[in-house]
Amino acid sequence: MNIQVIIIAILFAAAVFYVGRLIYKSLFVKKGCGSNCKCGVDFSAIDAAKSNK
Known about the structure:
The protein has one domain (3-51). The protein is rod-shaped and about 70 Å long. The longest helix is centred in the N-terminal third of the chain and has 25 residues, at 3-27. Helices cover 55% and strands 0% of the residues. With 53 residues, it is mostly helical.
């Protein structure tokens, strides 16, 4: 087998693995806080009247 074919096959397999991993991560959301989550933050000390100005 030609060395160029082996290199292309390895690169193709790596690309398929990478895209598959991206799709898997986008479909199955992790449990816990996301980027827009406010868990662990206490907003009780914030005065709503002052923040609307």
